[in-house]
Specification:
two-stranded antiparallel sheet, alpha/beta, Alpha/beta knot, five-stranded parallel β-sheet, single chain, binds adenine, Trp Operon Repressor, Chain A, 259 residues
């Protein structure tokens, strides 16, 4: 997969993209991620990327021109057509998804991350100031994504979050020891059970006995119960869609776990 990031702060990405699992995946050639600076594409003398909003109001907006030129340049560099969504005749088919990070976007969920992990190429646009001229979005953005119901100073942190959670779903990016099987928001739709490693006793707190006896059926049952309990306590909103057995559902009704 290729991920291009369009930003006026490319330096924000260097350490995040080079460290840990993402850094290793890039070195192994499993993903290619590049941040491109929008500023040099500005046609203005002082390479401005923002201006006052028509109609007044607080703050500045990112101008359409530098973004559009940067988007076209990135597409050209990658050898992919830069579809113009305002032109009806343009082919709807494309193996590129162009995403604008914005609090107005659809929420980023594990399901959406899984869908995006199936794409060949993502282009992430990071906004700044009070937003982006709508015409740049109308022309070149296929999807707006929000990483949560709060407002960040810019889309960069959102782009990092999206790039991280999509990349780790690409086959080979996680080693077998980092498997995404049992974790929160996996197929069962439950939060993850608590985990313990050595030592057996830490500052007077013991590892739960059940994890020490090697009885795999008992361990699995305990982890399942703990996952349900964590979900009841922390995210009861997830229970409705969680894949619980009829017995587990009855248990929740007969003997509700106190949140
Ligand atoms: N930019 C500013 N706030 C954002 C959010 N919540 N998600 C994604 N991008 C953003």
């Amino acid at each position: 997969m290729t991920i291009d990031i369009l930003t006026i702060f490319p330096e924000m990405f260097f350490s995040v993209l080079s460290a840990s699992i993402l850094g290793r995946a890039r070195q192994q050639g499993l993903i290619e991620i590049e941040a491109t600076d929008i500023r040099p594409f500005s046609a203005s003398k002082h390479k401005n990327t923002d201006d006052y909003p028509y109609g007044g109001g607080a703050g500045m907006l990112m101008m359409a021109q530098p973004i559009a030129d940067c988007m076209r340049a990135v597409c050209e560099k990658r050898g992919v057509p830069c579809r113009d969504n305002t032109q009806e005749g343009e082919s709807a088919f494309s193996n590129v998804r162009r995403i604008y990070l914005s609090p107005r976007g659809v929420p980023l969920t594990q399901k959406l991350a899984q869908e995006l992990a199936g794409e060949e190429h993502l282009i992430l646009l990071c906004g700044h100031y009070e937003g982006v001229d709508q015409r740049a979005l109308d022309k070149y953005i296929d999807l707006e994504v929000s990483i949560g119901d709060y407002v960040l100073t810019g889309g960069e942190l959102g782009a990092m979050v999206l790039a991280d959670c999509v990349s780790r779903l690409i086959p080979g990016v996680l080693g077998s020891e980092e498997s995404p099987q049992d974790e929160s928001f996996s197929d069962a739709g439950l939060l993850e059970y608590p985990q313990y490693t050595r030592p057996r006793t830490f500052e007077g707190m013991d590892v739960p006995e059940v994890l020490l006896n090697g009885d795999h059926a008992k361990i699995a049952a305990w982890r399942r119960e703990q996952a349900i309990l964590a979900t009841v306590q922390r995210r009861p909103d997830l229970l409705e869609k969680a894949r619980l057995t009829p017995k587990e559902r009855r248990m929740l009704i007969d003997k509700p776990m106190e949140p």
